[in-house]
């Protein structure tokens, strides 16, 4: 079976499994786990726009996530409706992303990483220390989840389906973006920024717009996060979250569509499921990452594809030998 | 009106003067060769002309328009294209996609985040035309990582030609090529139509001299000699700094 047919079959299977998940997974605990995987995957896909396609490694995305969450929490606490809270949450996140971008895009590489790290830490500091606004370590509770078009998202499966719809929209929009002319321009600025300038591209503006796109989807992930937990505290704005998001992208495969999703699944499952059985789950997570980086430095998804191709070639080679083709396999 | 007019251009990196009071005028359709020993400031001059570097003083005009303060990317839109001495291509893409990117750079389509780039057939057709001109159309879909050095040199030229420039700046287009490959590149350069003004930096005197109509000799960032091919070749100062006789 070719990799493409196999991929399509796996994709269709995964889609059916996701659509029917609350039916075959009766336990709401596991439905909730998959919801978490899905919104973290949106966050990882958002970060991947910068890390994978722009070649800009950000360690400040927890700040953007928190900006969306805190805005919603504060708006609801001030008795504005869900619609206003969500709109404000997205707006503040995109504006924050714009400020991040203007400051961080003065540099690339390590410089970019350090500036985003510092900006993320500033937001964490505000969440933690500006207690009059954010209630500091106590965090903010949300009284309810929204009910779009009259459907309440209070139950695990209702929230799961809402998350799934948004997740699928995110995946489709990323797939469209990647193959678009703007996506090609962005990847060009990653590989040869000098050449891109000489060819007539505005490298800075392309990166800036990519940052806004990344910020927008990080905001969406933040909204889902805060509504899922109905609570937000400085913990989620901390550097640990930014690092975990980056691990999702890198372990799954940067610059791929499905890598960040796989990475999100690994991290969430480790944190929630394995931790129930193994106290030192962090150790298991660490071992898994070391294994991925050792055997598949390009990430889990592209790495598995490479190994599959190698295995197929090996099998084909065996068959050729037993038939004894006079010219051997020349197509490889 | 001159195609390219550089006046009293100077540039220093700290205490090192890499370009000193350089003036040169290239007429439309002219083939100009810039020669000089290593470190003479030839590539720096190109970087100043294309805007990758900002001059300390002096001015640059493109068809009578002052572009000294115009952003590098805008100069591409005004009809200036260049190739690089050190090959600067997109290694993860195919040859065709490399040239398509060059076309995209001048197209408003480059901001489009929705349509499928592979379905932009007019871009694909124009990229194919450019590859035909450099003799690479038959391997257009080959990943760049699977091409030879000589083929990459041609991709460099195809990308510049695809943009339909008025002024084409070639930075050592023969560098690292075998004798046969050089002959091929020379033929494709001589096929460039006369409405394109060509300025070329080249070390390899055999191929370059044949191509050039006028020659500018740079040494330590200064113009030492300028004139027709014979004038420069026969000038004693040329022999002194460059030909080493």
Descriptive report:
- The complex is a heterodimer of chains A (332) and B (245).
- Helix content of chain A is 76%, strand content 1%.
- Chain A has 332 residues and is mainly α.
- Chain A has a two-stranded antiparallel sheet with strand order 1-2.
- Mean pLDDT of chain A is 90; it is low at 324-332.
- Helices cover 35% and strands 24% of the residues of chain B.
- In chain B, the strands form 2 sheets. In chain B, strands 6-7-8-3-9-10 form a 6-stranded mixed β-sheet, sandwiched between helices. In chain B, strands 2-1-4-5 form a 4-stranded antiparallel β-sheet, covered by helices on one side.
- In chain B, helix 3 (95-104) packs across helix 4, helix 3 (95-104) runs parallel beside helix 5 and helix 4 (121-133) crosses helix 5.
- In chain B, strand 7 (167-171), helix 6 and strand 8 form a beta-alpha-beta unit.
- Chain B has helices spanning 42-50, 72-77, 95-104, 121-133, 149-162, 179-190, 205-211, 229-234, 236-243; strands at residues 4-13, 16-26, 31-35, 57-62, 65-66, 80-82, 167-171, 197-201, 214-219, 222-228.
- Chain B is built from 9 helices and 10 strands.
- Classes of the chains: A mainly alpha (332), B alpha/beta (245).
- Chain A binds chain B through residues 176-177, 179-185, 187-188, 191-192, 194-203, 213, and chain B through 50, 52, 72-74, 76-77, 81-82, 84, 88-92, 97, 100-102, 104-107, 109-118, 120, 159, 163.
């Amino acid at each position: 079976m070719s990799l493409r047919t196999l991929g399509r079959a796996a994709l269709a299977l995964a889609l059916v499994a996701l659509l029917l998940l609350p039916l075959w997974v009766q336990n709401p605990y596991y439905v909730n786990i998959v919801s978490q995987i899905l919104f973290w995957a949106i966050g990882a896909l958002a970060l991947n726009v910068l890390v994978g396609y722009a070649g800009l490694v950000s360690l400040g995305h927890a700040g953007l996530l928190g900006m969306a969450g805190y805005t919603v929490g504060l708006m609801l606490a001030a008795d504005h409706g869900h619609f206003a809270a969500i709109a404000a949450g997205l707006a503040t996140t995109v504006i924050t992303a714009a400020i991040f971008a203007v400051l961080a895009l003065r540099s690339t590489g390590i410089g970019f990483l350090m500036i985003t790290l510092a900006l993320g830490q500033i937001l964490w500091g505000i969440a933690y220390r500006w207690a009059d606004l954010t209630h500091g370590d106590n965090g903010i509770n949300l009284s309810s989840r929204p009910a779009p078009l009259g459907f309440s998202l209070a139950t695990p499966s209702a929230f799961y389906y809402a998350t799934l719809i948004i997740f699928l929209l995110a995946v489709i929009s990323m797939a469209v973006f990647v193959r678009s002319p703007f996506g090609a321009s962005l990847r060009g600025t990653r590989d040869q920024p000098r050449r891109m300038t000489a060819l007539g591209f505005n490298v800075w503006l392309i990166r800036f717009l990519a940052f806004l796109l990344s910020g927008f989807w990080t905001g969406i992930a933040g909204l889902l996060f805060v509504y899922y937990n109905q609570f937000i505290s400085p913990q989620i704005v901390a550097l640990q979250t930014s690092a975990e998001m980056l691990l999702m992208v890198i372990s799954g495969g940067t610059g791929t569509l499905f890598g960040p999703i796989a990475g999100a699944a690994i991290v969430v499952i480790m944190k929630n499921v394995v931790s129930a059985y193994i106290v030192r789950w962090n150790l298991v997570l660490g071992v898994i990452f070391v294994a991925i980086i050792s055997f598949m430095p390009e990430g889990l998804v592209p790495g598995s594809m490479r190994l599959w191709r190698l295995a197929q070639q090996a099998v084909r080679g065996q068959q050729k030998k037993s038939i004894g083709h006079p010219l051997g396999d020349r197509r490889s | 009106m001159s195609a390219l007019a550089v006046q009293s251009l100077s540039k220093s990196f700290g205490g090192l003067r890499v370009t000193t009071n350089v003036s040169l005028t290239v007429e439309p359709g002219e083939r100009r060769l810039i020669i000089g020993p290593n470190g003479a400031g030839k590539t720096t001059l190109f970087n100043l002309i294309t805007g990758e570097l900002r001059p300390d003083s002096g001015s640059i005009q493109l068809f009578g328009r002052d572009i000294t303060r115009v952003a590098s990317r805008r100069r591409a839109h005004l009809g200036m294209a260049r190739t690089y001495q050190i090959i600067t291509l997109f290694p993860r893409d195919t040859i065709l996609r490399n040239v398509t990117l060059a076309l995209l750079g001048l197209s408003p389509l480059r901001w489009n985040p929705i349509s499928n780039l592979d379905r932009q057939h007019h871009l694909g057709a124009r990229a194919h035309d450019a590859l035909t001109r450099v003799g690479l159309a038959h391997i257009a879909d080959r990943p760049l990582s699977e091409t030879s050095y000589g083929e990459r040199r041609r991709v460099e030229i195809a990308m510049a030609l695809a943009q339909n420039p008025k002024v084409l700046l070639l930075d050592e287009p023969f560098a690292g090529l075998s004798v046969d490959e050089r002959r091929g590149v020379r033929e494709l350069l001589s096929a460039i139509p006369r409405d394109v003004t060509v300025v070329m930096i080249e070390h390899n005197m055999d191929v370059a001299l044949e191509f050039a109509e006028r020659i500018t000799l740079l040494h330590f960032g200064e113009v030492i000699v300028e004139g027709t091919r014979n004038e420069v070749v026969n000038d004693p100062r040329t022999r002194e700094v460059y030909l080493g006789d």
